[in-house]
Each structure stands twice: as structure tokens, then as C-alpha cells.
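Milestone M4 deliverable, item 7.
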Amino acid sequence: MDLRQLEVFINLAESLNYSKTAENLHLSQSAVCRIIQRIESEVGVTLFYRNHREVQLTKNGKLQQ
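Output delivered:
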């Protein structure tokens, strides 16, 4: 995982909105989606629940203390 991917993950985790993340980072929405899919593939877990109305972090996507 590189720094750009981490930046996208953090921004999406904070905003829970693909459009806002894309706008904040000057990327297309599809680029954000591809980056998140790559991260999930790399780590082998689903990090976000997605549907047409909302995005939420999964238990694996949340930081545990």
C-alpha cells in the first residue's frame, strides 16, 4: 500500500462518501473506487459496506484500540 492509497482510505473513512472523497483529492469517483478495491484485495478483507445510499466502515475497516 502506498501513501496515496492510504490518503484515499482515510479520506473515505472520514467522509463516508465517494463523491466527496473524489472531490477532496481531485480524483474521479471511479478512481477512488478502484483504489479502495486494490487496498481490499491487498489486505484480503472488506473495509467498507457499500450500497446505493451509503458507505460504512466494516469492523475490519475500523481502527481497534
